[in-house]
Amino acid sequence: MKKFIVLLFVVSAIIMTGCGNDNVSKLDIKNTENIIEKDLKDMKEVDDSSLEDVYDLDLSKMDEHVIKQNEDGDLYAIIKTSDKTSVKNVMEKYFEKIQQFNKNYSPERLEILDSRLEKEIGDYLIYIVSKDASKIYDKIVKSL
Fold this sequence. Notes:
By secondary structure, the protein is an alpha+beta fold. It has one domain (24-143). The protein has 6 helices and 5 strands. The chain has helices at residues 2-18, 29-39, 48-53, 84-105, 107-114, 133-143, and strands at residues 44-45, 64-69, 75-80, 117-121, 124-129. It has a 5-stranded antiparallel β-sheet with strand order 1-2-3-5-4, covered by helices on one side.
């Protein structure tokens, strides 16, 4: 019986600590940008008209957003939305278009696009397209 109680306690502790930072509902966007841009250089913000025309995003479905890219093809997006499903679908279609374009021109870039990072933290969607996407995301999670 004692072993069972100890085991139950250990499992409970693992479950409670394992949930960790995915329960964060307020992400500090500026801090997250700073973390990302330590690894991704020369990032330029995508203007709202391009987000609507090129990405096909409905800005009214986003409470906050930052989407930046550079000339090397690196990209990151931090989007706070209450309509995650809709925004995810639009982002998926955008990445499919970019993958089709890169299929013939840049197999190396296609590999990076295929391994892009897509995560949720609270009400936020995070996308990172970079060869170091996982490493960058780990830094974000550690900062929470």
